[in-house]
Design goal:
This protein has 11 helices and no strands. By secondary structure, it is mainly alpha-helical. The chain has one domain (17-272).
Length: 273
């Protein structure tokens, strides 16, 4: 008599969930490499678009907000000021958009074979991080052109800023990915939501324009990341470590909530897909 193994999702989180990710690390590598090959292999558009998109956005914002609107930049040239915010925002927004659609886009795999579903959003984070590193080429060029040299703290805090941004993107993306299974119109609403979120994030402006109400931006987890990146890389003002600590804690909480909701949605994801 053949032995039948029935795989059932856990009703609660367990430490073995993390060990399972390590157990399937080969699949994680394959998923990440697959996405990278699709974007970069035998194409010049993939690499050029990663550089072209933030660069053109920087030029447009510099012309309209830097020259015409005269947005305050806390003493830094507007092009490099806005580009620091753009690379973190682009990393965050693209990760949220990709992760929110990862289950729908890979339903042909999910419905046929078991693997930890969390591998899909993690692979997307890693893929977009490669794009982030490519975009840093422009930032390094701008820093050389304008004569900015970050101190030791700037180099040390930079990986932490990337990690905090990834936590925020992962948490929010997992939440929308879970909703997208039940309500397919989420993918149509999400681009508008991300666009509106950009205007409440100090990407193209300085939080100082809000004056005594600038503390309201602390509600936005990514605001502390961008503000800290500018203060440490451009050294135009003192770093508000309290605000960054609150932003990091908010991103961690957002990641935990998104992960738990994603785990709950896994129990019925195959049936709905």
């Amino acid at each position: 008599m053949d032995k039948i193994t029935i795989i059932k999702p856990r009703t609660s989180w367990h430490w073995s969930d993390l060990s399972e990710i390590w157990q399937y690390r080969g699949l994680l590598y394959f998923l990440t490499w697959r996405d990278l090959k699709v974007r970069y292999k035998q194409t010049i558009v993939g690499v050029s678009w990663v550089l072209f998109q933030p660069f053109i956005s920087m030029v447009v914002f510099s012309v309209f907000f830097g020259n015409f609107a005269k947005m305050p930049t806390d003493g830094a040239p507007y092009p490099i000021f806005v580009f620091v915010g753009l690379i973190f925002w682009q990393f965050f927004s693209t990760c949220v958009s990709d992760i929110s659609n990862c289950l729908i886009a890979n339903q042909h795999i999910i419905t046929k074979v078991y693997f930890p579903r969390i591998l899909l959003p993690i692979s997307l984070i890693l893929t977009r991080f490669v794009d982030f590193l490519v975009a840093l080429i422009i930032l390094i060029g701008l820093m050389i052109y304008y004569g900015f040299a970050p101190g030791l703290s700037g180099w040390l805090i930079f990986p932490v800023l990337c990690l905090v941004s990834a936590m925020a993107a992962m948490g929010l993306g997992l939440f929308f990915a879970s909703l997208n299974i039940k309500y397919r119109d989420v993918r149509y609403v999400l681009p508008f939501f991300i666009q509106m979120l950009m205007f409440v994030t100090p990407v193209v402006y300085s939080s100082s324009i809000l004056g005594k109400y600038s503390w309201l931006l602390a509600i936005n987890p990514l605001a502390g990341v961008i503000k800290t990146a500018r203060s440490e890389l451009l050294q135009s003002y003192a770093t508000n470590w309290l605000q960054f600590g609150l932003s990091a804690a908010a991103c961690l909480i957002l990641l935990i909530i998104g992960w738990l909701y994603f785990r709950k949605a896994e129990r019925y994801s195959v049936d709905l897909l």
